[in-house]
């Protein structure tokens, strides 16, 4: 009898975990990625209106369908805390929202509480370019105002921590025009002053991509302008 009851209880848990994504969480918390293990996410006992003594007496536990046990409950304090490293970019690459869904279980009688923990992004990645050097072959007869698309930097962080600006090293011939849209931030190299191959056949520039984090992180790319 006891074994079949427990089996039925866990089967119900498994079914509910499968349905969790389409259900509304009863509790919603948020925590930043990469916080230390042991960081308190919220007070389950208070938010679920459960007496702390009942948590231990009724065997409260956190279950999930993830390979790692990201969260655990402290039965003495009633708090939900971080139990494993949380890397937002690993869990939700390139997604604007990232959340982990778990369930809190009480036995005798059985109660199931759906819990959503939103993982907020920190600026732990710097912008980077896929190449170290990019070459432009530009005719010295090119007119001022001509534009050349620049390589875009990649940044694993999202939202305000993604790439927000591009800058070019000081020079007399080129500027950078940056535009932002739904697909992110892009940039073009703009010819400001006519080129003279006899004076300078090769121009070396440094393109810097800067993200919106505080403090900001950046990555660089060497630009070579070869005149013909």
UniProtKB/TrEMBL annotation:
Cadherin domain span: 23-129, 130-227
Protein name in the entry: Cadherin domain-containing protein
CDD domains: Cadherin_repeat
Keyword Transmembrane found: yes
Molecular function, one GO term: calcium ion binding
Protein localization: Cell membrane
Domain of life, per lineage: Eukaryota
Key words, A-Z: Calcium, Cell adhesion, Cell membrane, Glycoprotein, Membrane, Repeat, Signal, Transmembrane, Transmembrane helix
Recorded topology in the membrane: Single-pass type I membrane protein
GO biological process, one term: anatomical structure morphogenesis
A GO cellular component annotation in the UniProt record: plasma membrane
Main location: membrane
Signal peptide per UniProt: 1-25
A Pfam family: Cadherin_2
Organism per entry: Takifugu rubripes (Japanese pufferfish)
SMART domains: CA
SUPFAM superfamilies (UniProt xref): Cadherin-like (SSF49313)
